[in-house]
């Protein structure tokens, strides 16, 4: 991985923060954007901008073609044959809400249940919980011990009453890579559809929906070098048809009259209103950018960096690395004896280091692990070994300083 060359594509990586070169280790929250993606977005507004699906004029057609090409690129990126299986949303949260309200809610009712795991980000937890609550159904959460999902319990809970299982591909707290193939096979053995929350997984080698055989896949653009406010919901054709539109407006209808409305076809009936077409086009450019570097190369380098980071942190006195029994990628969370994560993140910021502190929008798993807050480092393929070494020195200094003060 030629990180030196790659970094030239990311203008923000040359910034200084608090008079130090920026070391950006908060990629789990959002990744940085390469120049090519920004230029693609700007170019669309400079040369092709018009609303999609609305007009017959030249620009509208150009804009529509570019948007549909982005849908095709997205489909290819996740190994899907038909671009009509790609719904553009505003992010993973939006995709999961659409599914919870449009697919699960109408099927849930007394006796029926939706199953998630304790690992889940609030975005793959609260929408299902609330859908079950509104419908009078049951919300079942499979427990986690350390960083290990209780697969026996999962097997027991998956039954004829289960409407859907929704599970993350990678935990945003522990970095744990879940055994998705095994989980999906378990659900399919009982005829239960599976939604995969791939928000943390897309930039580590991507996801192939054919190999996974999941019914739905949700992810965000801004966690894979794309713009914020973009995202995707993929679905198998027969399942997408079953989603009831939950947002209504222009672009998604067939016939509207006083008494009722009929809806257009998938994907358009699930994309009410003007889509974020320039963002979606830029997201497709981000996918092409990653393809050019090589998905396997990206995944391999991120794994190397994560392993080095984890080993470095484990070697520090009073530092507990969360998890470690299961394989992980690109997320290392720690707790440091006698030091609050918020204070540590604030002091690291003075060294120009961007790290995340807090509950990481995953209160249930933090509570289970026995923490209110953790400090999280999440490297990406444009990070370097040298940055990890600087982080290690900054951690030593910051922890010593905070222990002295507190
Ligand atoms: C595992 C996981 N799922 C879902 C989300 C929600 O993503 P977004 O806020 O982009 O919708 C996140 C964001 O951190 C995440 O890590």
TrEMBL record:
InterPro entries xref list? Aminotrans_V_dom (IPR000192), Cys_dSase_SufS (IPR010970), Cysteine_dSase (IPR016454), PyrdxlP-dep_Trfase (IPR015424), PyrdxlP-dep_Trfase_major (IPR015421), PyrdxlP-dep_Trfase_small (IPR015422)
Its UniProt entry gives the catalysed reaction(s) as: (sulfur carrier)-H + L-cysteine = (sulfur carrier)-SH + L-alanine
Residues crossing the lipid bilayer are none
User: Could you tell me which Pfam families the record lists for this protein?
Assistant: Aminotran_5 (PF00266)
What cofactors does this protein use? pyridoxal 5'-phosphate
User: For the Aminotransferase class V domain, which residue ranges apply?
Assistant: 23-391
Q: Which domain of life is it from?
A: Bacteria
Top class in the EC scheme: transferase
Keywords, A to Z? Pyridoxal phosphate, Transferase
Query: Is Transferase one of the keywords?
Result: yes
**The protein's Enzyme Commission number:** 2.8.1.7
Q: Which GO terms describe its molecular function?
A: cysteine desulfurase activity
The Swiss-Prot or TrEMBL record describes its family as follows:
Belongs to the class-V pyridoxal-phosphate-dependent aminotransferase family. Csd subfamily.
List the PANTHER family hit by this protein, alphabetically.
CYSTEINE DESULFURASE (PTHR43586), CYSTEINE DESULFURASE 1, CHLOROPLASTIC (PTHR43586:SF8)
Q: What is this protein called?
A: cysteine desulfurase
- The organism named in the record is Brotonthovivens ammoniilytica
